[in-house]
Amino acid sequence: MKCVLCKQGDTKPGFVTVSLHRENTTVLQKGVPADVCNNCGEYYLSQETTKRLLEKASRAAREHTEIEIIQYAA
């Protein structure tokens, strides 16, 4: 698909690092599957992946975790 941000590049399957912030919690997830623009690097996540990332961030915030760095596991 064409990148909606730069409108120049095409997206291809790849992996990214996603940083999420909730209240006083930061969750950094590495190796997240995404469609990545080959021009600007913008990435697009599937609905299922987004749901899993948000659930992990919510759990970390509930546990009052300050920072968590994890490898994404499908």
Can you describe this structure?
This protein has 74 residues and is of the alpha+beta class. It has one domain: Ubiquitin-like (UB roll). 22% of the residues lie in helices and 43% in strands. It is built from one helix and four strands. It has one helix at 47-62; strands spanning 11-22, 25-37, 43-44, 67-71. Strands 1, 2, 3 and 4 form a four-stranded mixed β-sheet that branches. The longest helix is centred in the last third of the chain and has 16 residues, at 47-62. It is elongated. It starts with 10 loop residues before the first strand and ends with a strand. The mean pLDDT is 94.
Q: Into which percentage range does the β-strand content fall?
A: 35-45%
Our count of domains comes out at: 1
Oligomer: single chain
Which CATH class? Answer: Alpha Beta
Q: What is the rounded distance between the termini?
A: 23 Å
Classify the helix fraction into a percent range: 10-25%
Comma- or semicolon-separated keywords:
alpha+beta, Ubiquitin-like (UB roll), four-stranded mixed β-sheet, 22% helix, elongated
List the helices and strands and how they pair.
Elements: E1 11-22, E2 25-37, E3 43-44, H1 47-62, E4 67-71
Parallel strand pairs: 2-4
Antiparallel strand pairs: 1-2, 2-3
